[in-house]
Structure formats: structure tokens, C-alpha cells
């Protein structure tokens, strides 16, 4: 049973110096320090359970997201959890429609990242109180309750609540069998071999290890220098052979014609998709790129920097993407992701979540497992991203077996970080940063 009034909200700026090793680097983000605005919610209930939530950032700017979380805090503090989840759509709307704060969004940018961190903590708390991993909480929820968590404003022209209900009703058939199928895990791909800042030797070594570990799907960063891309893509394709799957990610580096031209030159390496070829806001640009590249056998994937459900709606309407990448920390938490999963189902576009970042694998595995069991009912052309960084800082880290995500068993949203890790990496006074900042001064 849901219980307790939220009586304390704490938000911390946690940063990991991943840029030092080039981990996470791409054509636009050359020095990312994987970071999070990390929220902890406490209630006055006797169970002592806390809700943990985060949103992903790249180092600088995390303090801005922390400010935005504090600015939104009054919407959460002193609320009864029963009232929140009893009208989750209303609560989502309250957060995203704050008459003053929405001016610096709306439902986009810093304020939406802050919303995601807060709502992720609420979902974690709810799942913990129910004693279920988040994916199971969603799978067990009756369709009407699930729909009551979604704000359909701005998307009813493509998906009404009744249509969404029909999708969920259809999804009830075979749910049990699909749940059993996941004993073998949800298929994953790795991005960890080929960050842009890695040398060819590192790429080769990591690729050899990944092949030994049974990985069959790989993503390589491209977009800064064509000759480098040709060399690196040849190297990785030669190592993995013609049958395994290769994806490419340009992280918004190109103009539209440039994307088409560049990818035509990389087509010989048979990429399944090109990810974020251009600005994430350019829906018609993505459509033009799709139109040019699909005949070459290359799909367009995007989503990790799509602000909200409206952008996804238009990408789908415009046939601008062939693979849709939800993100657990950029959209307004589970609530908004549910609406995108349902729209993707309606348009029959496979969802392949983004997870390159700290904590993103931990969170998004719940959403994609739920998607498979209750919405998509298919594994065709579907896989979830995996990166092998920083899991050791989480209390309930992802479990990968045979290149697949094993369904989490612990209650909650797998969002809780180890307190010791948080303390050490808190910016700027944690042990790790004190040392690094002192070294920079000398
Ligand atoms: C800056 C991040 O590491 C980004 O490169 C992640 C990404 O694009 C992905 O995982 O995909
Ligand atoms: Mg990407």
C-alpha cells in the first residue's frame, strides 16, 4: 500500500571524471564527465523507505539542474504519496505547468531534466513501497491506472487515451509467456568499445574483449573526421565480421546534406542506423536524411536529446526515424516515456533506448522490459544500449548475461547510488574532486 508524506528532499551534484579517459566522448561532447543531479526523497512513513532519482548531465551545468530541482521542490514537499500516485497525471501536469517555471521550458531543457530527476525518485519510492522492481509494478498495473499516469495533452491528434487503452488491452495477451521469455534477458548492444576519444589500439582491445564476452551488436562514434571514421569503421567491421550488427552515432554533428553525403561514404560498412545525424530539433531534416539513407539500408535513430513527447510525435508523423531512442532521464520520467512507447507502438517503430551515461542503463532497462511484456510484444529490430561504466557506484547495478539485460529483481527503479560513492564524487567538495581541482590549480 502506498503511504507517507514526503517530508524531506535532498538534491546533490555528483560527477565522475570520465573525460580523463575519453570514456563517453563523441563528435560533439569531447570531454564528458558523466554526472547526475541526484535526488533523495524521504517520507514520514515508518517503513524508512526512500525514493532515489536522477537525471544525467555531463559535468558543468549539473549545479544548474540542482537549482531547478530546488525550484520545483515545493510541488513535492509535504505531498502525500497516495495523492501523488492517485492522480499522477495531475501531479505531472502540476510540475510541468508551474506558471512561472514553465517559462524556462516548457517541458524541455534544464527544468525538464529536473522534473525527470524528481519524478524518477517518486517512481522509485512507489515501486519500493509496493515491493516490486519498477518494470513489474508497470506490468502488473491495470491499463486504466497506467493511462492515468500519462499527460495526453499535445498528442491526442495521434494517440487518444482510448487508442492507448486498446494497445494496452491487446498487450495483455501473451504477457505471461513474454515474461518467461525474459528469463534469457533483453537483447543489448555495446557502445563501450568505440568512443571517439579512444585510440585504435584501445578500440581493438575492447572489441576483442567484447567479442569474447559474446557481444554481437556494436556502436561506433563517428562525425568529426571522415578519414578517421573510414579507418575506424573498417577496423571494427573487420573485427566483428559481416554478420554482426554495427551502428553509428554522430551526436548531431552534421548539417542535413552533409549527413547524407558523409553516410553515403560509410555505407560500405553496413551500419544498421545512423544516430543523431543532425540537430535533435530538426524533424524535417531527419525526414530528409531518412528518405536518402533508407534506400542504402541505413535507418535513422534519434531520441537521447529529444525534449519531450511532442518532438517524438512529430518525428513519427514525419517518418523521420526508423529507430526510436527513449531516454529515462531526459523525458519527464516514466510518465512521459509511457506515452512515447505507446506512440511508437501505434506507428510500429522499434524502440531501442539510449543508455550512454551514468545510471541510464540501470533505469531504462525497466522501461524496455515493460515495453516488451506489455506493449511492443516483439524483439524484432530491438535492443537496448549498454555501456560498461560506473555501475559499481549503484546499489542495484544492472546484470548483463550473454549480451542481454537480466530483468532486475530488487524493488524500486535501480536508481539508488552507494552513499560512499556519492560522498566521494560530490562536486566540488568530494574527495575525488578536491584532489582533481587542487591538481589543476598547481
Ligand atoms: C556524451 C555521451 O556519452 C553520448 O555520447 C552518449 C551517446 O550518444 C550514446 O550513448 O548514444
Ligand atoms: Mg547517442
From TrEMBL:
<dbReference type="Pfam" id="PF13378">
    <property type="entry name" value="MR_MLE_C"/>
</dbReference>
<dbReference type="GO" id="GO:0050023">
    <property type="term" value="F:L-fuconate dehydratase activity"/>
</dbReference>
<dbReference type="InterPro" id="IPR036849">
    <property type="entry name" value="Enolase-like_C_sf"/>
</dbReference>
<dbReference type="InterPro" id="IPR034610">
    <property type="entry name" value="L-fuconate_dehydratase"/>
</dbReference>
<dbReference type="InterPro" id="IPR029065">
    <property type="entry name" value="Enolase_C-like"/>
</dbReference>
<dbReference type="InterPro" id="IPR018110">
    <property type="entry name" value="Mandel_Rmase/mucon_lact_enz_CS"/>
</dbReference>
<keyword id="KW-0479">Metal-binding</keyword>
<keyword id="KW-0460">Magnesium</keyword>
<dbReference type="InterPro" id="IPR013341">
    <property type="entry name" value="Mandelate_racemase_N_dom"/>
</dbReference>
<protein>
    <recommendedName>
        <fullName>Mitochondrial enolase superfamily member 1</fullName>
        <ecNumber>4.2.1.68</ecNumber>
    </recommendedName>
</protein>
<dbReference type="InterPro" id="IPR013342">
    <property type="entry name" value="Mandelate_racemase_C"/>
</dbReference>
<dbReference type="GO" id="GO:0016052">
    <property type="term" value="P:carbohydrate catabolic process"/>
</dbReference>
<dbReference type="GO" id="GO:0009063">
    <property type="term" value="P:amino acid catabolic process"/>
</dbReference>
<dbReference type="InterPro" id="IPR046945">
    <property type="entry name" value="RHMD-like"/>
</dbReference>
<comment type="similarity">
    <text>Belongs to the mandelate racemase/muconate lactonizing enzyme family. ENOSF1 subfamily.</text>
</comment>
<feature type="domain" description="Mandelate racemase/muconate lactonizing enzyme C-terminal">
    <location>
        <begin position="200"/>
        <end position="295"/>
    </location>
</feature>
<dbReference type="Pfam" id="PF02746">
    <property type="entry name" value="MR_MLE_N"/>
</dbReference>
<dbReference type="GO" id="GO:0000287">
    <property type="term" value="F:magnesium ion binding"/>
</dbReference>
<keyword id="KW-0456">Lyase</keyword>
<dbReference type="InterPro" id="IPR029017">
    <property type="entry name" value="Enolase-like_N"/>
</dbReference>
Amino acid at each position: 500500500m502506498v503511504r507517507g508524506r514526503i517530508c524531506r528532499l535532498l538534491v546533490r551534484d555528483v560527477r565522475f571524471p570520465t573525460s580523463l579517459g575519453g570514456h563517453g566522448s563523441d563528435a560533439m561532447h569531447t570531454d564528458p564527465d558523466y554526472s547526475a543531479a541526484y535526488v533523495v526523497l524521504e517520507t514520514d512513513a515508518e517503513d524508512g523507505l526512500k525514493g532515489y532519482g536522477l537525471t544525467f548531465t555531463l559535468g558543468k551545468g549539473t549545479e544548474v539542474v540542482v537549482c531547478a530541482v530546488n525550484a520545483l521542490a515545493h510541488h513535492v514537499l509535504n505531498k502525500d504519496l497516495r495523492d501523488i500516485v492517485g492522480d499522477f497525471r495531475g501531479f505531472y501536469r502540476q510540475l510541468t505547468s508551474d506558471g512561472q517555471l514553465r517559462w524556462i521550458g516548457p517541458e524541455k531543457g534544464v527544468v525538464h531534466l529536473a522534473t525527470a530527476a524528481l519524478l524518477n525518485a517518486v517512481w522509485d519510492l512507489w515501486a519500493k513501497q509496493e515491493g516490486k522492481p519498477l518494470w513489474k509494478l508497470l506490468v502488473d498495473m491495470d491499463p486504466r491506472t497506467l493511462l492515468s499516469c500519462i499527460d495526453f495533452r499535445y498528442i491526442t491528434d495521434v494517440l487518444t487515451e482510448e487508442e492507448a487503452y486498446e494497445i494496452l488491452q491487446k498487450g495483455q495477451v501473451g504477457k505471461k509467456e513474454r515474461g518467461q521469455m525474459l528469463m534469457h534477458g533483453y537483447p543489448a548492444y555495446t557502445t563501450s568499445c568505440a568512443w571517439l576519444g579512444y585510440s585504435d589500439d584501445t578500440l581493438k582491445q575492447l572489441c576483442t574483449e567484447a567479442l569474447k564476452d559474446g557481444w554481437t551488436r556494436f556502436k561506433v562514434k563517428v562525425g568529426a573526421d571522415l578519414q578517421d571514421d573510414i579507418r575506424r569503421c573498417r577496423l571494427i567491421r573487420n573485427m566483428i565480421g559481416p554478420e554482426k550488427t554495427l551502428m553509428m552515432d554522430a551526436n548531431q554533428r552534421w548539417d542535413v546534406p552533409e549527413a547524407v553525403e558523409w553516410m553515403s561514404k560509410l555505407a560500405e560498412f553496413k551500419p544498421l542506423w545512423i544516430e543523431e545525424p543532425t540537430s535533435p530539433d530538426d524533424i524535417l531534416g531527419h525526414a530528409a536524411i531518412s528518405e536518402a539513407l533508407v534506400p542504402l539500408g541505413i535507418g535513422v535513430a534519434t531520441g537521447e536529446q529529444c525534449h519531450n513527447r511532442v518532438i517524438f510525435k512529430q518525428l513519427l508523423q514525419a517518418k523521420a526515424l526508423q529507430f526510436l531512442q527513449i531516454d529515462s532521464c531526459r523525458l519527464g520520467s516514466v510518465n512521459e516515456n509511457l506515452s512515447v512507447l505507446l506512440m511508437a507502438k501505434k506507428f510500429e517503430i522499434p524502440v531501442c533506448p539510449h543508455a550512454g551515461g551514468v545510471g541510464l542503463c540501470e533505469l531504462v532497462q525497466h522501461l524496455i522490459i515493460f515495453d516488451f511484456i506489455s506493449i511492443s510484444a516483439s524483439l524484432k529490430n530491438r535492443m537496448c544500449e549498454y555501456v560498461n561504466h560506473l555501475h559499481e557506484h549503484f546499489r542495484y547495478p544492472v546484470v548483463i548475461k550473454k549480451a542481454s539485460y537480466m530483468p532486475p529483481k530488487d524493488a524500486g527503479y535501480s536508481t539508488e547510488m552507494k552513499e560512499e560513492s556519492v560522498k566521494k564524487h560530490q562536486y566540488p567538495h568530494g574527495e575525488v574532486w578536491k584532489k582533481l581541482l587542487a591538481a589543476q590549480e598547481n
